Amino acid sequence: MVSKAKKSVALPAVIDLDSLDSIRDSLIDAIEEGPVTVTAGAVERVSTNALFMLISAAETARRNHFDFAIEQPSAALVTAIERLGLGTQFSGMMRG
Q1: Cβ atoms < 10 Å from Cβ of 58
Q2: Which residue in 2, 17, 31, 46 is a FRET match for 23, CA 20 to 30 A apart?
Q3: Any residues with CB less than 8 A from the CB of 65 and at least 6 apart, and which?
Q4: What is the CA radius of gyration of the chain?
Q5: Which residue from 81, 73, 78, 96 is spatially nearest to 11, judged by alpha carbons?
Q6: Is the whole-model pTM more than 0.90?
Q7: Beta bridge partners of 71
Q8: CA-CA distance, 32 to 7, in Å (whole number)?
């Protein structure tokens, strides 16, 4: 049975190859249950792979008809998104 309770996933300060598996698993579990809020205020450094993983998670949530939002993105996260030209992909999910 699918729950509609919003799940929250907090991103760590450093999102690199070492932390991707854990974040991915948390996102998969959350997306299977309903709407997801990703808290990104603590992010100080983020890899390109992590940004693509977030885009993929948002697309999976959309296909499942669930909301996916990134709340309070840190300056480091926003800068990485802009430098890689991914602003359009992230524009609909950024809050705050």
Answers
A1: 23
A2: 2
A3: none
A4: 12
A5: 73
A6: yes
A7: 39, 95
A8: 10
| Residue whose token pair is 């974040």 | 23
DSSP result, the chain: ----PPEEEEPPSEESHHHHHHHHHHHHHHHHHS-EEEE-TT-SEE-HHHHHHHHHHHHHHHHTT--EEEES--HHHHHHHHHTT-HHHHTTTEE-
What six digits make up the tokens of 11?
Answer: 């991103």
CB burial of residue 85 (10 Å; 0-12, 13-18, 19+): exposed
What is the total residue count of the chain?
A: 96
Q: Do residues 62 and 46 make contact, with C-beta atoms less than 8 angstroms apart?
A: no
